[in-house]
Amino acid sequence: MKLFDKNDILQVFKSRASTRSYDGTQKISDDDFNAILQFGQLSPSSVGSEPWQFLVLQNKDLRQKLKPVAWGMVNTLDTASHIVAILAKKNARFDTPFFDEVIARRGLTDDKKQQALAVYEKFQRDDIAILDSEHALFDWASKQTYIALGNMMTGAKMLGIDSCPIEGFDYKAVNQLLADEGLFDLNEWGVSVMVTFGFSDKEIRPKSRKSLDEIVKFVE
Ligand SMILES: Cc1cc2nc3c(=O)[nH]c(=O)nc-3n(C[C@H](O)[C@H](O)[C@H](O)COP(=O)(O)O)c2cc1C
Known about the structure:
This protein is of the alpha+beta class. It has a domain at 47-61 and 84-160: 3-Layer(aba) Sandwich (NADH Oxidase), CATH 3.40.109.10. The protein contains 8 helices and 4 strands. The chain has a 4-stranded antiparallel sheet with strand order 1-2-4-3, sandwiched between helices. α2 (30-41) crosses α6 (134-158). 26% of the residues are buried. The mean pLDDT is 97. Bound molecules: flavin mononucleotide.
């Protein structure tokens, strides 16, 4: 069943633009921000791992502390209505309590649980080969968080809310800062990406993109 007209959907995609200048007087309503969080929550993730947490950074002092280490949002730390640090799970291996919860969420019988775990082990060990490296495991979890990031930004635009994804920060320093504030355990979680939300105070520039001819190949 078609839910929306494609031209309406394209309009959303064309008008979403990374926003570097917010009207600091406008705040996103609690209801709308809750919906944005749900766009993240409802996003797909590999094997249903949901290896994310959303840290909503509203504290003014903390935002000040981020300024020297987050150059990619230095101009919007004061004016963004909401800022989210998206955390990715570390060490999300098939043989950890984290994965026991993944399996539990699927509501499988004990037999099926063992089968599913065997599939996940092969997947992580052989197919995407991430078990030998903490870095590769973290990157795998981080990839999932970027799906949530995209959905949150597009969904926000549908509500008339602007956003900007943020990779422009010193990862080590930001992780340490947030962990020192007691916001998460560095052994368990790490920031994968951040995102600002608010209301742009500038006109959106027309999009520049490669043509479909350059990026698409149909294999018949
Ligand atoms: C993962 C990611 C990280 C980004 N990090 C930053 C950032 O730190 N600061 C910034 O101003 N823009 C950042 N951008 C925005 C890009 O520059 C922008 O998406 C790109 O130029 C395309 O423009 P558009 O988003 O307006 O279509 C980031 C984009 C992505 C996808």
